[in-house]
What we know:
Number of domains: 2
Mean pLDDT: 88
CATH superfamily of the largest domain: D-amino Acid Aminotransferase, subunit A, domain 2
CATH architecture of the largest domain: Alpha-Beta Barrel
Low-confidence stretches: 316-338, 346-358
Structural class: alpha+beta
CATH class of the largest domain: Alpha Beta
Strand content: 25-35%
Distance between the termini: 27 Å
Number of strands: 16
Bound molecules: pyridoxal-5'-phosphate
Amino acid sequence: MHNAVDPPCPSVAWLDGAFVDWADARIHVDTHAVLGGLNAYEVIAGFWIEDQSQTFLFRVAEHLERLGQSARVMRLPPHDSTPQELCRITRELVARNGYQQDVLVRVVHYLGSGPVFSYRPEEISSGLFMTAKPALAKPPIARGIHIATSRWTRLSDTAAPPRVKCGANYQNARLAQIQAQVDGYDDAVLLNAMGKVCELPLANIFIVRGEVLITPIVTSGILEGITRRSILELAAELAIEVEQREVDATELYVADEAFACGTGREVWPILSVDRYQIGAGEMGHITRRIQDHLHRIVRDQGPHREWLSPVYPAAETEHEGEPSPTKTSQTSDRSPRATPRFAEQAGDGRGSAGRPDR
Ligand SMILES: Cc1ncc(COP(=O)(O)O)c(C=O)c1O
C-alpha cells in the first residue's frame, strides 16, 4: 500500500508521440495547458485481477470517444495519434509500468504555445500525454458520505459546457468540494442555474424514490459520465425502473436512497444531504444491487466483457524466457525503451480478445 503523501513515481509516461522516463514527462510553462488549464482529458480505470495476473481497463473506447468530443467543443488543434493508437498506447503504458494493482490512466490532449485564443494548428500547438498511476486505496467514503448542497452553481452549457471534460472546468468543482469540506461535509452536490440537481464535483448522482432509480437528465448540466451510462444499462438488466429527468433539490431530502458514481470508485452511497438523513442512513438495497453488479463486471466475473480491455498478454501465449510484464516489479526496468509485452488488441479497444484462461 502506498502512502498518499509520498507515492512512488511511475516509471514511464507517454508524451507527444513517445514513451519517456517519468522525470522527462514535462511540458513548457509557457503553454496554455499550464497557464489556463486548457486541455481535454479522460481518466480511465484499470482493475487488477490477482488470480489472472491481469489488468482490465474499463470502457476505453467510450472514454476516448468522450475525449474527442471534449477536444472538438474546446476547438483544440488535433494531436498526432488515432483513436486506435491511443487504445494501444493506453494498454502499453500500464504494461510498461508493470503494475500489479488497480490503476488510473490519465489521457490529456493539451493546448500548447501560441497566441492566446488561437485555434488553428498553424498558429498554436497541441499535444497529448498519458500517465498511469496506482489508484489510491479506496477511502472509507466507500461506506457512505455526507454531503451539502453547494453555494456554488454548476457551470452552464452556455458558459463553460459541463459535458466537456476540460481541466479549466474543474475550478468550479474544486471550489464546491473545498467549501463542503471546510464546512464539515465529505463532499458537495451542485445545482444548476435553475436550481435543479446536477452532480457532485467529480461524480454523477442517482437517487431512489420508492423502487424507482432517478438521475438528472444529460441536459441538466452534468458530465455525461461513463459510469452513469453503465449503471443505466445495468439497471435495465436488473429490471429496476429508471427515470432520467430534472431532479428538484428538495427531492434529495425525501429520497429513500442516494449514491454517487464515477471512475475509480464506481458507486458509493450518500447517507445525508444538508444533514437530512437519507433513508435509514445506510446503503439502500437498490444501491447495493447496482454496486454488486458493477463490481462483478469490473472484477471480471460477470457479463459485459466487451467493456474490459486486457493489458497483459494471455498467460498461455507467453514466450518462454521472455519476462512477462505481470512479473516485472515497478522499479526493475525504468527504461522507456524497454518494450514489455502487452495484450495486442485490434480495433478500437472494444472487446477483450486475449483474455487469459479463467
Ligand atoms: C464532474 C464529473 N461528473 C461525473 C464524473 C463521472 O464520470 P465517469 O463515470 O465518466 O468517470 C466525473 C468523473 O471524473 C466528473 O468529473
